[in-house]
Automatic annotation (TrEMBL):
InterPro entries noted in UniProt: F-box-assoc_dom_typ3, F-box-assoc_interact_dom, F-box-like_dom_sf, F-box_dom, SCF_F-box_component
Official protein name in the record: F-box domain-containing protein
F-box domain location: 5-45
Domain of life: Eukaryota
Amino acid sequence: MSNDLCEELVVEIFTRLPPKTLLRFRSVSKALYARISSPDFIRLHTLRFRSPKKFIIIHKHKLKDNEANYKSMLYTIHSERQISSYAGITPLTYPFYTSSLIVGSCNGIICVYDPSLQRGDAIYLWNPTIKRQYKVLHLPSCRPCFTHGFGFDPVVQDYKIVRIGITHTFVYTLKTATWRTIAPPMTRPCYVNQSKCIFNGALHWVVRAFRGYEYILRFDLSSEVFSTIELCEPSWKNKEVTIVKGCLAVLSKNDDDDWYIWVRNNDTVSWSLAFKLNSPERLTFGDVPFVYYYYPEIIITLSHEPQARSRLVHLTDTSRIACMAACIESLELLDMGTSCDQITGTKIKREAEESDIMQK
């Protein structure tokens, strides 16, 4: 009985420790290494450990003020308190090509899509906390591909990736490492906004149909069935879908360049206006505020002031935010994949070679 109690206490304590601490503990003994690396412990740690939310921001950066295109990227990781002040932030080593896009984030795993035609498109799962990545193999042909989604199915306890194309739709499950064809959306989209969120076990996107009106496309991660949700103002420019105070929310822009945040009531399934924002003149048509909610306020990042930019080396007035993703610290992917340290050098070398080829 005493041994069982001691065992339970060890698990209770360890599942509440930070991931980086547990990584160091693995070197203590073979028994601890096996315990911490086991899938059951990793899942239990994800459920119990209260990780502070962090934000990974990708900045596009011009090497010269007069350049038309952005030539390089800067990657940073922030806590919630650092999101607006840029105080004490940490530069982040990004182990993928700069052409890659962040699909989504779930339980500390970030899904990354590289659409390169030269290398062939690829999908990776990445845990920046423990610096591990997992390459998803055998991507089914899907060109043109509207979008991808990533999330966790709580019913089967598995991570899934959905790949939506113009004629076919596929789902990948991490446990089986296989792709399956599923029924596509009933209404074929013309354009899918890359911004998405997970709400009540389903992925949500803002979608534009061929006739021009917009709606929300919903994909249930458990049933793997698509459905639609009508928008409050479908004729407006609906840019972002997010979560505000536990409710689905949409950021919309009207013809007067005013921004509105609409919140959907979970009981009455009706929309109500939560916030109205007057856009600054410097906000261009293509720029979209990034909206993240955390108690007790909403963080809305339109652009960073020069004083904030100056706190980061290489971040100047010629930079702009390209992407922002929220993430937590976890041990997910510890029992699979590859260390990012093994591939970063190879990636940098290949990217430099491709850049030389493009310039010739």
